[in-house]
Structure formats: C-alpha cells, structure tokens
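Researcher: Next entry in the queue.
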Amino acid sequence: TGINPKCFGNPGEALTLKIKVTTCKQMTSRAGKTFQLFKGHALNQGNKAVTWFADRADPLIVLGVRGATIDVEGVIKECSQYRGLWSTQLQNVQQIGKGQASAYLGKPGEIITERVKILAVTDATYGGKAVRMETPNRRILVAYDQHSNLQLANVGEVWDITAKVKKHGMGVTQIYYISKAAKV
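Model: Structure for this entry, 184 residues:
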C-alpha cells in the first residue's frame, strides 16, 4: 500500500514527536460523551498534520493550548481524511520530558533480544499463556504465547528472549514469533 505522502509512520508504531498545537477543544460525541480534540503539526515530521482525541482529564490539555509546542510520544493509528484534509491520527499520546526515553521497544516487525524479568503469567484467551515481562530499563513487554518455552515461565524468573515486535500501545510493547526463550 505504501504510506500516503501527507502522513507519516506505520500503524502500531510509537514515535516521539514535537507538535505545534493548532486546536485543542472540547467536543461532544453523538452518544453525548465529551472528549478533547487535538490538532497540530509534527515539526519533526516535515510539519505534517496530526490529530488525536483525548479524555477530558488528559494532562496534555493544560499544556496543549493553541500555539504551544509540546513533546509527546504517540502511537500511529491511521492516515485519515476529514473534510478534505489528510492527517496522521495518533493514539496513546503522552507527554515526554527532555531526554526521556520511549516507553516502547523496537519498531513493529523488528527482531529484539532482551533479558527480561517475568512479572505475570496468565492463561491467554485463545490458548497458551499471556506473559508480561520487564526489561532492565523498565520497558514492559507482553507476549501471547503457545509455541515457545516462554509459556513455562514463572513470576520472578529471569529469561533471555528473542522475538519480533508486533505493536506498541498503552505503554506496552507486544511481541510475537518468539525464536528463543531460555531461563537464565
């Protein structure tokens, strides 16, 4: 398909963005729910337009006043058109401080090798296990696994894993295609 030249990034990919806010206003959905609409331009992505929706309690509302420039991390949702204008729609947008690292690991499709501490192991909806883990620099990973040894992991154990990044969202990096999983 290729990326629309008016947009940037790939769905599910987390990016660090410097955004100049052009709109930050409260809206009401057809269902009567109020939410915040943000629009702006990503200065570090060729000034391309961005849009995202937030909860009314979102801390960015205070900072994201019209004309302000904010440093955020957001996950690409899609390239969308509204009233003839294209923009990159974001989700899970959070402010990040100067020099603060991303909450996410790798890029979708990238292979990563990490030493992780097992935080939780639960039964996954479609069989196998849902394994939640943490890297030494506090990134949270989750895998829904029914093929590798990782499903034998127990809370508190340390494992070496090699896997592919599936997607970013809600501060968690989801991984799959686990090619190596060994208890340390």
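Model: The first strand starts at residue 14 and ends at 28.
Researcher: Noted, moving on.
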